[in-house]
């Protein structure tokens, strides 16, 4: 078809003649006058229109695409200082994600930490991979310029960073690192507090310690990063909980699970069943009851246990149920408090089997306790059995 005829055809599709005989292929005189400039200048007129349409489509697609973590914080009106800090924490976690996925990580997870020697009471024996992750987070929060104190599972004492940093960060840099050799998911856990300015007059060591031992009710934000088939950052700023998945093509954490809510009740429990005969009577009775479908929920529960706290909690957050370690094993400051904060923000509960975790005042940096996390109805049923805390640990180390 000649160019002029094609142009005529396009125009006529959008402006059909009302007085033209059905058998005629020629437009009426008034349409021929309108058609002439389009025919002569098609290359100059249609191309810019097409480009403008492409730009509009791209803008619409961008507007419809889910926000990144930092975009979400901007939309939510987060404080500028907090946004800067979270930007540095997410950057550190991207580096850790690459580290745990690297070919040399198995050797690092097997090796002993440099220097060896005794480990402070309450701490796990560190490995090079733990220490590398700790160094990455320490470097990132230092460079943010927004942190006064960092308290980590990998350090005997909290580290004072800056006199004017507005925040305190508590963290387990790489939870579950012993599982890396067999490619089981691992994670990073963190909590953020405001610096207690009323303590600024105290000696530095005391100031650092007391800032790190704040009650979980004072958390400004908390989160975890799951390093698995996907790298997922789940975070709350005290107004709900949102999960962001790392898009490796762009290097951005993209909102994939907005306003997460843990189901009121699940059908999964997560615990090391091999310790069944060491459990107290109340916990054994609870597990026996729900396994048989004789509890408050008439269905039989299934056991799912990864032995990686972040992975077990993430599954519980999505599917509901209970994740637990009934021993005095998990750390209040940088594991139990941040995860309980997230559980509550999602409509669930964090408990030591008797008390709300966030109401417990820490007295030691590496203080341990039993930890139960999960759906509200499941947690209340569990606590109703009373005796669920395992106080003896025969045959194995804490």
TrEMBL record:
Its EC number is 3.1.3.11. It catalyses: beta-D-fructose 1,6-bisphosphate + H2O = beta-D-fructose 6-phosphate + phosphate. InterPro entries: FBPase_C_dom, FBPase_class-1, FBPase_N, FBPtase. Gene3D superfamilies: 3.40.190.80, Fructose-1,6-Bisphosphatase, subunit A, domain 1 (3.30.540.10). GO terms for cellular component: cytosol. Residues 77-258 form the Fructose-1-6-bisphosphatase class I N-terminal domain. Belongs to the FBPase class 1 family. Residues 262-385 form the Fructose-1-6-bisphosphatase class 1 C-terminal domain. The keyword Cell cycle does not apply. SUPFAM superfamilies: Carbohydrate phosphatase (SSF56655). It is an enzyme of class 3 (hydrolase). It comes from the Eukaryota. Keywords: Carbohydrate metabolism, Hydrolase. One of its GO terms (biological process) is fructose 6-phosphate metabolic process. PANTHER family: FRUCTOSE-1,6-BISPHOSPHATASE-RELATED, FRUCTOSE-BISPHOSPHATASE. This is fructose-bisphosphatase. CDD domains: FBPase (cd00354). One of its GO terms (molecular function) is fructose 1,6-bisphosphate 1-phosphatase activity.
């Amino acid at each position: 078809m000649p160019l002029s005829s094609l142009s005529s055809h396009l125009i006529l599709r959008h402006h059909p003649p009302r007085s033209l005989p059905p058998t005629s292929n020629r437009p009426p005189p008034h349409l021929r006058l309108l058609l002439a400039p389009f025919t002569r200048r098609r290359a100059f007129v249609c191309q810019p229109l097409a480009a403008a349409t492409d730009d509009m489509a791209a803008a619409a697609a961008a507007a419809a695409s889910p926000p990144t973590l930092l975009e979400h914080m901007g939309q939510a009106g987060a404080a500028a200082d907090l946004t800067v800090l979270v930007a540095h924490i997410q950057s550190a976690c991207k580096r850790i994600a690459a580290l745990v996925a690297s070919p040399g990580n198995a050797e690092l997870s097997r090796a002993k930490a440099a220097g060896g020697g005794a480990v402070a009471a309450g701490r796990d024996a560190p490995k090079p991979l733990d220490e590398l992750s700790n160094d990455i987070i320490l470097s990132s929060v230092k460079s943010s310029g927004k942190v006064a104190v960092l308290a980590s599972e990998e350090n005997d004492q909290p580290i004072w960073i800056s006199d004017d940093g507005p925040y305190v960060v508590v963290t387990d840099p790489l939870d579950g690192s012993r599982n890396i050799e067999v490619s089981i998911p691992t994670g990073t856990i963190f909590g953020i507090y405001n610096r207690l300015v009323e303590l600024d007059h105290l000696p530095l060591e005391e100031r650092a310690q007391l800032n790190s031992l704040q009650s979980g009710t004072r958390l400004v934000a908390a989160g975890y990063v799951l390093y698995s088939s996907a790298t997922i950052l789940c975070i709350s700023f005290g107004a709900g909980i949102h999960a962001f998945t790392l898009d490796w093509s762009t290097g951005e954490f993209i909102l994939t699970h907005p306003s997460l809510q843990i189901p009121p009740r699940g059908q999964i429990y997560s615990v090391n069943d091999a310790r069944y005969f060491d459990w107290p009577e109340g916990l054994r009775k609870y597990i026996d009851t729900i396994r048989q479908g004789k509890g408050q929920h008439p269905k039989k529960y299934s056991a799912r246990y990864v032995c990686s706290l972040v992975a077990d909690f993430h599954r519980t957050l999505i599917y509901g149920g209970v994740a637990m370690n009934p021993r005095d094993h998990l750390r209040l400051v940088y594991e139990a408090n941040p995860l309980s904060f997230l559980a509550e923000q999602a409509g669930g509960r964090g408990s030591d089997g008797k008390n709300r975790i966030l109401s417990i005042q820490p007295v030691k940096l590496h203080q341990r306790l039993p930890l139960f996390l999960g759906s509200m109805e499941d947690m209340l049923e569990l606590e109703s059995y009373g005796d669920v805390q395992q106080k003896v640990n025969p045959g194995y180390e804490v």
